[in-house]
């Protein structure tokens, strides 16, 4: 049975990339599959502990963004990760499944740890194991994320496959596996964890910085001008788009003409994602025009799409009672799925159960 899992870290500065690359794409899935959306607060401490109060505020803000974007708590499970203990437990077990070599190849760790790897937290290094645990604690089959998470999802698949292989006999003996959908002589007939499908598609899988078309739009970029925050008002949005880096050429009429023009490609991609059009359709409309004409149109569109969301986020965070109630119900529903999975996993591994 298909089941979707995805999440965003409550690390502040939620931006257009998080919205277009992830949250907005979750909305239609709610009517097609079972959907679980998590605010991954355990991940948010891997790069340092936030100041007191910040984590709570950011957790509520991300939840508010989910709801304002159209995630419906009646259709989806919405919760914060630290409320469901199984994430941390499964992450530990996966620490013992994943190999050092696999994690050493993770480019996000290299980028985030920077030059000072010796001083990075062990949690930052093991981050992808926690992400695998987030997904597999629900035996989720589909994970809609931005392009930057591709490598981590491959690691999740490797962890699932290694676990299924290493414990093939126990899974079979206990009779708690499901038939392997891709049988082959090397793979077990019965598997416990699905080999998750990444869902990375559309014109906005990697929104780039407004100041540098070769760098991902990111929460941690020191320049606020590099990103459109979901909390920005109309003035801030139009100022940032006006100041966005571009080249001096007019927009091309064909998508091919965006090659080697990263800033132009990014702005056209943002317009396409916000309007639900393809890049080619956008160029059909604006090809031949200068940025001086395209940028105001992009600003108007961004404001039109984001302003109602920003207003709803403000309403929800002003009095967090509603958000906290949604997260509480979500955590209960999430636990109801994850607890039996962890019970199975403990049995598969062979821990003595005396309770
Ligand atoms: N620029 C982006 N374009 C498209 N999708 C993006 N995502 C992030 N940036 C972009 C997607 O948003 C989801 C949540 O991301 P996250 O909060 O888990 O963390 P992140 O990827 O670390 O976000 P940032 O903004 O890049 O933060 P920092 O600065 O801390 O690195 C994911 O699905 C991600 O793909």
From TrEMBL:
Gene3D superfamilies cross-referenced by the UniProt entry: HUPs, Tyrosyl-Transfer RNA Synthetase
Catalytic activity: tRNA(Trp) + L-tryptophan + ATP = L-tryptophyl-tRNA(Trp) + AMP + diphosphate + H(+)
Keywords: Aminoacyl-tRNA synthetase, ATP-binding, Cytoplasm, Ligase, Nucleotide-binding, Protein biosynthesis
EC number: 6.1.1.2
Keyword Aminoacyl-tRNA synthetase recorded: yes
Superkingdom of source: Bacteria
Motif ('HIGH' region): 10-18
Residues reported to bind L-tryptophan: 134
Location in the cell: Cytoplasm
Binding residues for ATP: 9-11, 17-18, 146-148, 207, 216-220
Motif ('KMSKS' region): 216-220
Coiled-coil blocks: none
Gene Ontology molecular function: any one: tryptophan-tRNA ligase activity
Subunit note: Homodimer.
Function according to Swiss-Prot or TrEMBL: Catalyzes the attachment of tryptophan to tRNA(Trp).
Family: Belongs to the class-I aminoacyl-tRNA synthetase family.
Protein name in the entry: Tryptophan--tRNA ligase
Gene from which this protein is expressed: trpS
């Amino acid at each position: 049975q298909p089941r979707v899992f995805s999440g965003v870290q409550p690390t502040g500065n939620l931006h257009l990339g998080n919205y277009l690359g992830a949250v907005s794409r979750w909305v239609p899935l709610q009517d097609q599959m079972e959907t679980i959306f998590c605010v991954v607060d355990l991940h948010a401490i891997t790069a340092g502990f936030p100041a007191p109060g910040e984590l709570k505020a950011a957790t509520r803000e991300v939840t508010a963004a989910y709801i304002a974007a159209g995630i419906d708590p009646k259709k989806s499970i919405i919760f914060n990760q630290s409320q469901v203990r199984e994430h941390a437990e499964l992450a530990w077990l996966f620490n013992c499944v994943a190999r050092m070599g696999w994690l050493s190849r993770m480019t996000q760790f290299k980028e985030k740890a920077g030059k000072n790897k010796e001083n990075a937290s062990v949690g930052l290094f093991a981050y992808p194991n926690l992400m695998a645990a987030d997904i597999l604690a629900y035996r989720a089959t589909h994970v809609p994320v931005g392009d930057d998470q591709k490598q981590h999802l491959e690691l999740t698949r490797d962890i699932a496959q290694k676990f299924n292989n290493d414990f093939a006999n126990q899974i079979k003996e206990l009779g708690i596996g499901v038939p392997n959908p891709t049988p082959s002589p090397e793979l077990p007939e019965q598997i416990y964890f699905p080999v998750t499908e990444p869902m990375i598609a559309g014109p906005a899988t990697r929104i780039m910085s407004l100041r540098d078309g070769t760098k991902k739009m990111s929460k941690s970029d020191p320049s606020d001008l590099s990103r459109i925050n979901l909390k920005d008002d109309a003035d801030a949005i139009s100022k940032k788009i006006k100041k966005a880096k571009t080249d001096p050429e007019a927009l091309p009429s064909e998508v091919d003409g965006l090659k080697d023009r990263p800033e132009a490609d990014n702005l056209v991609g943002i317009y396409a994602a916000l309007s639900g059009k393809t890049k080619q359709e956008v160029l059909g409309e604006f090809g031949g025009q200068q940025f001086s004409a395209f940028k105001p149109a992009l600003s108007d569109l961004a404001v039109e799409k984001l302003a109602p969301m920003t207003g709803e986020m403000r309403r929800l965070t002003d009095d967090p009672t509603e958000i906290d109630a949604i997260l509480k119900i979500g955590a209960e529903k999430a636990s109801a799925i994850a607890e039996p999975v962890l019970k199975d996993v403990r049995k598969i591994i062979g821990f003595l159960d005396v309770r």
